[in-house]
Each structure stands twice: as structure tokens, then as C-alpha cells.
Design brief:
heterodimer; A: alpha/beta; B: Ribosomal Protein S7; two-stranded antiparallel ribbon; disordered N terminus; structural constituent of ribosome (chain A); Small ribosomal subunit protein mS29 (chain A)
Chain lengths: 379, 231
């Protein structure tokens, strides 16, 4: 019933603008509650409403997942094995060394994005500075507006997307930005009269980008550069999260005015973000999730291994990285998921509550989380 | 659309000869037995008529219809409804559409059920979409139908009794038609329209229910022509 068309919902410029206008204010009122010390696999960790709006209100979960939260009237994420593996790795990390790169990979619907967002939630609670890219498709394939850059001729700017990204960053890190005292390391001249002096707070750059959308793309690039410098100087601990990283290594759909296909190097935003892929910085970590489309029988057998998805160029960029496989539910996790659905009234058909019915749900969908939700949604 | 036009298909339906299980032109030899695809029916046979089951054990069996299955979630009602709704034989596509309808019904009902504050208000909602659809169709089912009988140069619409099976088919058809009653492109709007019509029919409102009352009224006014059924 949930068609693939809805999975990859087309984001028009109007809806982007609407999200930009309606994003929550950055007031610091929430009281932080720490998650349990040792998370248990299969349990559901609820996200508080105000934290959810701050972290994922602008961008984050896919439309299908947002709809799922709406139907269940509850926003929670299951603790899975890859999340625990990531926590173990982070625990053992020496942050004085170059940043570790992690790549989440697995079948479509296995929970890569959910794991990534769970880590974003964990990072928020543990005082990381988050740089979260939820959908690079917005930049590479269907940007809201395209402009030719004035500061760097030949490059393309996406002012609306850049302003949205800055707003997303500001929302996510409102707590962190209010506590830390990050300063700009050098003088930036945006135009004749608009200048950010050396030693001004970093928030000024973000605010300038949001209020002057023409400079937003440059502001985002400067922000990432300054964060890298700050992390190297031990002023903040950086967590860079990118969903669908392998889209950076395919042919983009964006074109120049003369009809040439633009390369990733020619887009200000993508170029700036791809600099975070390298490990020439320390005191932080990079986590990327791959994207693979296996929704139709025609592409059911497309390879989902990182080597095939990242291509040679991506493999070189990320090498060496730590691959983390996100598998389908184990038997226990599937049971836990079905219990949760029953508890939240998603399962209504009496047969779906019997042991035979539950076995059938698990067997037919091969315990794939998304497929199981799709199957259960109409029972 | 007049009432007479809208009841046209009933006439066609009733005058058609009943479909009997094919014997003369069947590809299966006469010794082949009809299949029992559902597990619950098999268990019933084993427990209640063990002798008959023993006979069937080694007899050759006709292939089961391809829209049957042994799933726990198989429902003959849904199959019948898909048979009414589908076009050009694209059953699989329309099954998906019906699943989406069920999902949206549940979503809407759950949201309203959560918003209701008192337990009395909550009791009014039916959260199981399949049960809701069955009750909606049961509400729309007509008790009596009319048929056109020409007599002495005049065509009378004569009240006739109706089989339960036929009545259910008419109910499904009316709900589908009520959802269908809007300008093109109907496929894009059909799913939310079906959701709306089902919930209307469940609460005893809407176009489909009105059509039933109209038919009952016609049968009541034409009660005097009832004897044309056999004269």
C-alpha cells in the first residue's frame, strides 16, 4: 500500500519554504534526560517531543517514518545491534587521533536511517556538536533554487537549501551553541558592507546566512570549515552524520544554465560537505548511511555492499573506514516490534495477534523492518 | 442520474442465467474433486467427516483458483470486493489499492479515537478496518430489489426478493460507485473517496445509503405490481 512514490516524496520549493518558515524557535527550555547507561537490544527508546522537534523538526526522518509516528502517536526508536556497536566503538576511540569514519550499510528498509538518527539523539544528549545531513538528494538532484555563485565564478549555489541547512544546524545545536564560545578564526568579507571580523562568535555567520540567503551557501561552507578548526583546537567534539552518502558519487541531476550537467565539485554545498569525508581533522567522528533502492522486483537484486554503492571514488575517499552492517530484525527483535505494534493499536485483525499470524508476518516479510510495517499497516 | 438509470445493472444481473460449475466443457475429467484451499475447512472435514476425508485422500484434485491462498489473513469478503472494484483484470494492483484504503481507514479512526475524551464516545469507533468495511456493506445491502417487466406496452418496475449474495454485491457496487462519482482523474481521488464512503456507510449516512432507501421506496410504491412476478 505504501508505494515507492511516497518513499521518495518530491520536495517542491514551496514545501521547503514552508518547512523553513515553520521550524521551531531555538529557545533553550528542555530539561535533558540521560538515556539508560546500557541500552538493551529490542527495547524502544522514546524521544521527547521538544527534543524531536529540535533535532528532526526541519529535516531528518523520511515521510513514511513521520507518518508511522503519526499513526502510532508515539515517537520512539528501537535499540538495535549496530547502534550498540557504534557506542562501543565511540567508547574505545582515542579522539586525539584522526576522525574515524563509519559506514552503515544494509538492505533497503533495514533501519540505516533510524540507526543514524538514534545516534544523533544520543550525540545530542551527550554534548556533541552535530552536523546532520538528512537528504543529500535535496542538493544533488532537486534543489529548490539554483543560482550562479558570485564569490566563486563557475560554481552553483542553492540559497534556500543552504538557509534550511543552517537553520537545521542552529536548531540541533541550540543548546551547544549557547554554552560554547566558538569564535571565527579569520575575517570573512561577504560584500562591501557585510563583514564578519576575526574573533566574532560563530553564531553570527549562521545568522548572516539565514537572514541573507544569497550568502547562505558560502556561510554553510565557512561554518563547516570553522567547525573543523574548532574541533582540531579541542573546542568542540564533532559528530558528522550523513544519510545517503553514496549519492555524492553518482551523476547529479542538477544542470548549468547552458545545459551542462554539473559535477559535485561545482556545487558549493556538496563540495564543502565532502571535505568532511576526509580524516584530516580530529576530535570527532563521521557516520554515513548508504542508500539503496530495492523496492521493486526489477531492482530487488541490486547490490547493497559499500564497494558497489560508494564506487571506486567513494572507496578512496573513505578508505580506511569501519563498515557496520544493519541487518533485518532478529527473531527476538521482530517479536518485540510486533508487541509494540499491538500495544500501540496498529494491529487490529484478531489473526495478527495469534502465534500463527505472528509467525506468518515474520516469515513473509523476511523480518525486514520496513516490509513488516508495510504489511502490518493494513491489518 | 435518475433512479431508473441507476438500477439498470440490477436488471442485467438478475436476468443473467446463474453460473453453474462447468461439466460439459471442463478440462478436468469427471473423477477430479473440487479443491479445499482453506486450512480451517480442511480441519473441519478431518474432524467432522473422517470417512469423506479418507475417500478424498487419494482422489485427483482440480487446481485451486489462483486468487485463493492459505494465508491467515486471507478473507473471502476482501476478494469479493476486489472483484467488484478492479478493472481490466488488474487485480493485484487493485488489491494494493484496497490495502491502502484499509490503512487510511485505520489511521483516521485511530486519530479520532485518540481525540475522543469519554469512554462513551470511544465506544462508537470501530478500529478494525475489515470489520468496519463489512458493517458498512451490511448497512447498504438492499432487502428487496426491482426488475423491469414489460406488460401491455408499459414497462413496470416490479419488486423482487433478493438473495443474500446478490444483495451484498449490490451493496459493494453502490459504495464503489458513490466513491467513483467525481470527475477525472478518478484514480488519484478514488482511495480517499472510498475511505470517506466506507465511514459514511458505517455511520448510516452518504450516497450509498440514500440509494438503498430510494430503492426501498420504489419497491414500496410499486407493491401493487408484485403479482407481475408470476403473471
Amino acid at each position: 500500500m505504501l508505494t515507492t512514490a511516497r518513499c521518495v516524496a518530491k520536495r517542491s520549493s514551496l514545501s521547503l519554504l514552508k518547512r523553513f518558515m515553520c521550524s521551531p524557535t531555538n529557545s533553550v527550555t528542555s530539561s535533558i534526560s540521560m538515556p539508560p547507561e546500557k541500552p538493551i537490544i529490542g527495547t524502544f527508546e522514546p524521544i521527547k517531543k521538544d527534543i524531536y522537534e529540535r533535532l528532526f523538526g526541519v529535516n531528518g526522518f523520511e515521510p513514511v517514518a513521520v507518518e508511522l509516528f503519526e499513526v502510532l502517536d508515539d515517537k520512539s526508536i528501537m535499540v538495535r545491534l549496530p547502534f550498540i556497536q557504534l557506542l562501543e566503538y565511540i567508547e574505545k576511540t582515542d579522539f586525539d587521533r584522526p576522525a574515524n569514519r563509519y559506514i552503515l550499510w544494509g538492505r533497503q528498509g533495514a533501519g540505516k536511517t533510524f540507526t543514524l538518527n538514534h545516534l544523533a539523539y544520543w550525540g545530542y544528549l551527550n554534548g556533541f556538536c552535530l552536523v546532520h545531513l538528512a537528504s543529500p538528494r535535496d542538493w544533488l538532484d532537486e534543489p529548490a533554487e539554483i543560482e550562479v555563485s558570485e564569490s566563486r565564478p563557475g560554481r552553483l549555489d542553492f540559497p534556500l537549501n543552504a538557509a534550511l541547512a543552517l537553520r537545521h544546524f542552529k536548531n540541533q545545536n541550540s543548546l551547544f551553541l549557547s554554552k560554547s564560545e566558538l569564535k571565527v578564526s579569520q575575517k570573512y568579507t561577504w560584500s562591501l558592507r557585510e563583514i564578519t571580523e576575526q574573533g566574532e562568535p560563530l553564531v553570527n555567520v549562521i545568522d548572516h546566512g539565514i537572514s541573507r540567503m544569497k550568502h547562505a551557501s558560502d556561510c554553510y561552507a565557512v561554518l563547516l570549515k570553522e567547525l573543523k578548526i574548532a574541533a582540531n583546537n579541542n573546542l568542540c567534539r564533532l559528530m558528522v552524520l550523513a544519510n545517503d552518502v553514496n549519492l555524492f558519487y553518482k551523476k547529479p541531476l542538477v544542470k548549468h544554465a547552458d545545459g551542462r550537467v554539473a559535477s559535485v565539485e561545482e556545487m558549493t554545498l556538496a563540495r564543502a560537505f565532502m571535505k568532511m569525508f576526509k580524516n584530516d581533522w580530529k576530535n570527532g567522528l563521521f557516520v554515513g548511511a548508504t542508500y539503496v533502492n530495492q523496492s521493486h522486483w526489477k531492482n530487488r537484486l541490486t547490490p547493497y555492499y559499500p564497494k558497489a554503492l560508494l564506487t571506486d571514488r567513494g572507496w578512496e575517499d573513505f578508505d580506511p573506514f569501519i563498515p557496520i552492517k544493519v541487518e533485518n530484525y532478529s527473531d527476538m527483535e521482530a517479536d518485540s516490534c510486533l508487541d509494540y505494534y499491538t500495544d500501540k493499536m496498529l494491529l487490529q485483525r484478531p489473526q495478527s495477534k495469534t502465534p500463527e499470524g505472528r509467525e506468518e508476518i515474520k516469515a513473509i516479510n523476511a523480518r525486514n523492518p520496513f516490509e513488516m510495517y508495510k504489511f502490518c499497516s493494513n491489518l | 442520474m435518475t433512479i431508473y438509470q441507476s438500477f439498470n445493472f440490477i436488471n442485467k444481473l438478475v436476468t443473467k442465467s446463474p453460473v453453474i460449475y462447468q461439466v460439459r466443457w471442463s478440462v478436468w475429467p469427471p473423477m477430479y474433486v473440487r479443491p479445499i484451499p482453506r486450512r480451517e475447512n480442511q480441519l473441519k472435514l478431518i474432524n467432522e467427516e473422517p470417512d469423506k476425508f479418507k475417500e478424498l485422500t487419494f482422489s485427483p484434485i482440480i487446481a485451486a483458483p489462483n486468487d485463493h491462498n492459505a494465508s491467515n489473513f486471507y478473507d473471502p469478503f476482501l476478494r469479493r470486493f476486489v472483484n467488484v472494484v478492479h478493472r481490466s483484470g488488474r487485480k493485484a494492483e487493485y488489491e494494493d489499492m484496497i490495502r491502502e484504503v484499509m490503512y487510511l481507514i485505520k489511521k483516521k479512526q485511530l486519530a479520532e479515537w485518540r481525540a475522543a475524551d469519554t469512554p462513551e464516545k470511544k465506544a462508537k469507533f470501530e478500529l478494525d478496518p475489515l470489520v468496519l468495511m463489512k458493517k458498512a456493506v451490511a448497512n447498504v445491502k438492499p432487502v428487496v430489489i426491482t426488475k423491469y417487466i414489460p406488460k401491455g406496452g408499459v414497462t413496470y418496475s416490479v419488486p423482487f426478493p433478493v438473495l443474500d449474495k446478490t444483495s451484498e454485491y449490490i451493496g459493494m457496487k453502490w459504495i464503489n460507485r458513490a466513491a467513483h462519482d467525481h470527475p477525472k482523474p478518478w484514480r488519484a481521488i478514488h482511495v480517499p473517496a472510498l475511505v470517506r464512503e466506507f465511514i459514511f456507510a458505517f455511520n448510516g449516512e452518504g450516497k450509498a445509503i440514500k440509494q438503498k432507501y430510494d430503492l426501498h421506496k420504489l419497491a414500496e410504491t410499486n407493491k401493487a405490481y408484485a403479482h407481475y412476478r408470476w403473471d
